[in-house]
Amino acid sequence: MNEANPDPYDAPVQPRIGILVVAYNAAGTLARVLERIPTEFRPRISGILVSDDHSADSTYLVGLGYQQIDPSLPLEVVRNPRNLGYGGNQKVGYRWAIERGLDIIVMLHGDGQYAPEKLPDMVGPLERGEADAVFGSRMLMPGAARSGGMPLYKYVGNKVLTRFENALAGADLSEWHSGYRAYSVEALATLPFERNDDDFNFDSQIIVQLLEAGRKITEIPIPTFYGDEICYVDGLRYARQVTRDVVRYRAHKMGFGTGELAFASEAYESKESDASSHGRIVDWLRDRPASRVLDLGCGDGFVAEQLRAVGHQVVGVDVAPSEGVKDRVDRFVEADLDAGLPPGLDGPFDVIVAADVIEHVRAPERLLDELHGILAPGGVLVASIPNFAHWYPRLRVLSGRFDYDRRGILDNTHLRFFTHRSFERLARESGWRVARKGVTGLPLEVVERGGADAKAESGVRRALRKLDATAVRARPSLFAYQLLYQLVPHGRRPA
User: Fold this and answer.
1) If you classify domain 277-489 with CATH, what class do you get?
2) What pTM value is reported for the model?
3) SS3 437
4) What is the DSSP-derived secondary structure letter of residue 180?
5) What φ, ψ does residue 271 adopt, rounded to 5°?
6) Does domain 10-262 have CATH number 3.40.605.10?
């Protein structure tokens, strides 16, 4: 095929672009918004949905009238049977985009606050595969927001909230509160946006979901326009809502709460900090002579990898192999410890590690009893246990809001709960003596899990760690997050 007659099959496939116009009491502005869609851009549009959110004026009729007078636009006009709210109206539009197999969907506001002239710029990064979402920002150009008429109190509120949201959610956006948005429909389809609120905080919630899903957000500068349109946003209520949303997201990333906002995160993640229970266990065993180690509930093999690096031989056991674990242990055994120790472990072992394991079995006394049979003379059992007497579960119980979390002390896979007294009694009754014990504070490394740049948050993390460490020293039963034990059979001392 020569250049004069190019192969039509080699031509790039043009993305199917849709526009969602969210409209509420926009009878006086809707037609002008549609007229301002650039003429050269119109042939690229596969569909426009004007979604009238049960307006009290003639917005719906204006949309139908424009549909008749300008057939060049592939316009569809709907009127919601009841007012769904700003977020609920977006859900209608995004379902529409997904059902029609569109590739890109752009949200415009029927009140004319955002410039339709910027539509080509909004879809550009999506067409080039550079982003999963494009936000029009009024804050990228210094001074543009104020010169465009944004009131000072809104400008200050926008900047303060955006900075707070960036810090907690791990973003670096110039603005969280612009309603000019373009999305990859494929990306939208992977997000649980139907769970979001129907209010104005929907926009912040979908940012959190994009970040959690690892999707790329790009911002472009847009002009600011404040006319005589009616603002339906209750500023104080909105600020409370978006603050709550990012605080909940950070809490879910840390392991507190239901975890639904951290939907793309592993329910159980390695504790790689030196101050974590896993880090402390590795530190306890680092100077021990080369030993045969049994790592119960080895997870992804982080502890095993660290122990092998200092000369230990490690057999790992878990209910299923995590990615890469077989490369981090000398031997992997697939077994459910809730059913007891698996046969063929090829003991004895000088060290048995039960890091965050005992709380996951229904009969821990049976498991502890079985471990005597595979421990070498002079050997030790090292265990870490979540502290149910920590202030967090105490507060949940006291407030009458006890429930399981996705991870942490109230992990929904925990079958038993322990305090230091109840665990030490269990160990004693199972034939073990405490040879050494310790505690850890809050796992503050998760403050930065999925969060902003580590250097940016290091000051906050250091301050929190100092405060937590002081509290742990003063009252470990209340502030210790996990309990660490080195156990030996009755009458023996660790080598």
Assistant:
1) alpha beta
2) 0.73
3) strand
4) -
5) -105, 90
6) no
